[in-house]
Specification:
The chain is an alpha/beta fold. The chain has a 9-stranded mixed sheet with strand order 5-4-15-14-16-17-18-19-20. It is globular. The two termini are about 45 Å apart. The protein binds ligand 4UW. The site of ligand 4UW has 27 residues, from α8, β18, β19, β25 and β26.
Length: about 525
């Protein structure tokens, strides 16, 4: 998969191509693509609520989708409008996405643990005109709406009942009369989903993933086929690209049966795996660590055969220990980003420990020297760059950030990697400033902007420090204004009240006299990180 040729005494190395055959991607809308596949599995269970046991067959998903689309159309929603989904994992997540997509709406998925402040920002930025939420989250939604008069939410659709909100069940029981055909779609141009990611730098940004991006990635994943009726766990949040595309979309194409859980809670997690006879689970490394080390696991009779891991590095020793303890076939690792829909690399069985596998079909990569920009060869470390049909259209209303991320058609991942002679890739370091807590994004710039709102703070910086359980945790460095005597803990507490739990400053707060910065004023996070790691 690697080309090298010599000319005039110089060695030129071209980029890497996938070892998998290329695949054809139909020019159609996401809803049309998915629903036509669902027709083949009509009577099978598609998705089950792991808490209530309520199930939807594929046929029911199709019917509810068309009814919901009709109700949304009657309510005035039309192609190009954006709607936000702020609900925890449940079967209805799938119906809402399909119905919205059938009408040509853009779906902005929101982290269900967001505070009203964080939600407000995404609703404003995405210009969402409706929101789907859980009843207990309605007060938080109302708080967000009250924060800014610029938010233009016409309807709050609620999964259950809440005073003043329209129940989702009323949409799903519509007579279907208003929805006569799927909205026309320019699949390479029209945005289908708008999840948020901070990318290599700065604040969370709306990632415009087109119908073509998502359909391509689902088809590219065909190299890892799923058995019909396969039972798998939907615990990773569907608002995040991994849960959304790899768990929810991909597996339902094959007629799999997904059991959803709204959050991780040790007993619920293990008893669901056991009682629902789950054979395949998509997880992140901290959950694999739990299954490998926790004594409670011994009390359950699990029939897991296969685990998939992604979103953060997974070490070889943990892989081996987990495989042996659970007696499973293998742990398959995947790698990718929200900006790549997400899958780029996949390690198919027989797996190569530590590696994130080879390039999936229709995908090209190059490893470039971070200083010279030169393309590097096997076993040489540099920034991984990607080209393929799964690469996002761009960030919403952020042309500079898009241009920074995609140069000459190549998406710069901000990850340091190398590949071996057989085309297996290894992710070794993160060049970008992003922190990952249990696989979830914590953008340092976002935390810094919140810390700076504290009246006693002059300046600050946030870095990620290694943590055995979570992978990384955020740590803050703060310069106080003159004569202020707040304590480190006061700053941590202040942050805790303003951000989602995964963004807490679990790595602590340290007061410093100044923040190291480049001549251009950019925070030199590396200096802080090196100082922390060397214990100074
Ligand atoms: N090893 C080391 C990994 C890995 C990794 C991601 O939040 P985002 O934007 O996106 C994700 C995507 C997860 C994912 C992709 C494809 C796949 O097959 C799968 O599971 C099987 C999961 O988390 O964060 C993107 C950043 O997360 C890091 C890396 O830094 C990347 O730029 N990352 N996967 N296997 N690091």
């Amino acid at each position: 998969c690697h080309f090298k040729f010599q000319s005039h005494g110089f060695i030129f190395m071209l980029h890497n191509l996938s070892v998998h055959p290329s695949v054809d991607v139909p020019d159609t809308s996401f809803a049309s693509f998915m629903l036509s596949k669902y027709e083949k599995h009509k009577n099978l269970i598609a998705i089950e609520n792991g808490i209530t046991g309520e199930t939807y067959t594929y046929d029911q998903v199709i019917t509810k989708t068309l009814k919901t689309a009709s109700a949304l159309k009657k309510a005035g929603y039309k192609a190009g409008d954006t709607v936000a989904i702020f609900i925890r994992n449940s079967p209805e997540y799938l119906v809402i996405i399909l119905a919205a997509s059938a009408l040509g709406l853009v779906i902005s998925t929101v982290n269900s643990s967001y505070t009203s402040f964080e939600l407000c920002r995404q609703l404003l930025d995405s210009k969402s005109s409706a929101i789907f939420t859980n009843p207990d989250l309605v007060p938080l939604v109302k708080e967000a709406l009250a924060t800014s008069s610029k938010i233009n939410i016409k309807d709050i659709f609620v999964l259950g009942n809440h005073h003043g909100c329209r129940p989702l069940s009323s949409l799903m029981e519509d007579d279907g009369s208003a929805f006569t055909e799927l909205a026309p779609c320019n699949s390479k141009e029209d945005t289908m989903v708008l999840p948020y990611s901070s990318g290599t730098t700065g604040m969370p940004k709306g990632v415009m993933l087109t119908h073509h991006n998502i359909i391509s990635n689902i088809i590219q994943l065909n190299i890892f086929p799923i058995d019909e009726k396969e039972r798998l766990l939907g615990i990773l949040p569907f608002y995040h690209i991994y849960g959304m595309v790899v768990v929810l979309f991909y597996n339902t194409l094959y007629g799999a049966h997904i059991v959803t859980l709204p959050k991780f809670e040790p007993e619920g997690f293990l008893s669901t795996l056991q009682n629902k006879k789950i054979q395949m689970a998509h997880l992140v490394p901290p959950l694999i660590l739990f299954l490998t080390k926790h004594p409670m696991v011994e009390d359950y009779n699990l029939c897991l055969r296969q685990i998939l891991s992604g979103a953060a590095p997974l070490g070889k020793d943990l892989c081996i220990e987990c495989t042996e303890r659970l007696g499973i076939n293998s742990i398959v690792q995947g790698y990718g980003l929200t900006e790549t829909s997400p899958v780029v690399l996949l390690d198919l069985p027989p797996v190569k420990y530590s590696s994130v596998g080879t390039l999936i079909g229709n995908t090209e990569s190059k490893i470039v020297d971070t200083k010279t920009g030169q393309i590097l060869g096997p076993m040489e470390s540099g920034e991984l760059c990607i080209r393929g049909p799964q690469v996002m259209k761009g960030y919403l209303n952020k042309p500079e950030a898009t241009a920074e991320m995609i140069k000459d058609g190549w998406l710069h991942t901000g990850d340091i990697a190398h590949y071996d002679e057989n085309g297996y890739f290894y992710i070794t370091e993160r060049l970008k400033e992003l922190i990952k807590y249990k696989g979830f994004q914590v953008p340092p710039a976002e935390l810094e902007s919140v810390i700076l709102t504290h009246s006693d703070v002059q300046d600050c910086a946030v870095i990620g420090i290694p943590d055995e359980l979570a992978g990384e945790v955020p740590r803050g460095y703060v310069v106080l204004k003159k004569d202020k005597n707040v304590k480190e803990n006061d700053i941590a507490k202040y942050i805790e009240n303003k951000v989602a739990p995964h963004k807490k400053l679990r790595g602590g707060v340290e007061f410093v006299s100044e923040i190291p910065k480049s001549a251009a004023g950019k925070i030199l996070r590396r200096v802080l990180k090196d100082k922390y790691l060397s214990g100074k």
